[in-house]
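Holo model, alpha-D-mannopyranose. Inputs:
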Amino acid sequence: MADIAKRFAENPILRPSEIRPSRFGMKVECLLNPGAFRFQGKSWLLLRVAERPEQKSGKTTLPMFAENGELKLLEFDNSDPKLDLSDPRVLRYDGVDYLTTLSHLRLVSSEDGVRFKEDPGHEPLVGRGELEAYGIEDCRVTQLGSTYYLTFTEVSPHGVGVGLRSTSDWKRITSHGMIFAPHNKDCAIFDGQIGGRYYALHRPSSPALGGNYLWLAESPDLIHWGNHRCLAHSRPGMWDSIRIGAGAAPIRTPAGWLEIYHGADEKHRYCLGALLLDLEEPWKVIARSTEPIMEPLADYEQKGFFGNVVFTNGHLVDGDMVTIYYGASDSVICAARFSIVEILSTLKTGGQC
Ligand code: MAN
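Output:
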């Protein structure tokens, strides 16, 4: 069997009912795709919390931020023929797309990496300004020295791009604006420089020529990114046939940079696989998974807000062991362990891009 993940017996480790809503009148609908990091001797997750108001029968109500930063609600009649509710994540009305939930990021911490709880001393990270009017999602956290860099999806009517914020104490957080313009997401910064340059994986999308492929960019200062190179394509007929995107920062191993990534097929089934990149020339792909290393097999990965999804953008490494924290079915937070040596042994060389 392709799946080599050792799921935590405690899964799901966090459910929506365990996280308080950000404000009165909102309901936490889903917990998704956390960033992960170590800080002050503890394990931390930066959860994506997706909320919406309690739904009235026959109506769909969705939240967004108005230009003045206040929360605004839009209400639609479910019998309106212009309304398309076929995807639980997106509402389409008269050809315009809206998100059904509004996401922000929430910090939780743990002594044992299994039981996480909120620390009231830390404020939620919320969308600010017109580029984040539909919220912020799926944050990767990369530590460089004593500074943590947060790369996350900024969603607005202008499209989907990558935002950057940084912090050293998780209390004062500095925004550096949008670093990859729409349509782009799944950005993970490497946790070390190579030849004096910073590197990041990212995922621009091209609807006509090209597709949803994984790219590499480099930067002198983490703000300005260039020298873009395409690393890997989605692969027709395989588990990652329609879109692929980076997970968390690549893991440095003696064999190369190991990147755990997600891939989805025509049925929007999300699995995880891995890529191995050259240590000195990370634009060279040495090897790649042919079979997924993790598939949605458990009940909580197959059924939920959006079923058949395992999606990770946060992990913690301990010697040969990598613990991934992941969103299951876009509903709950789970965790699983892998041996890095075992992942490497499954990768095949040749014919990647
Ligand atoms: C997209 C993103 C993720 C989400 C998956 C599955 O890739 O929006 O946040 O988990 O779809 O719905």
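Residues 340-346 form the longest helix (7 residues). The helical segments are 299-302, 340-346.
Archived with the compound record.
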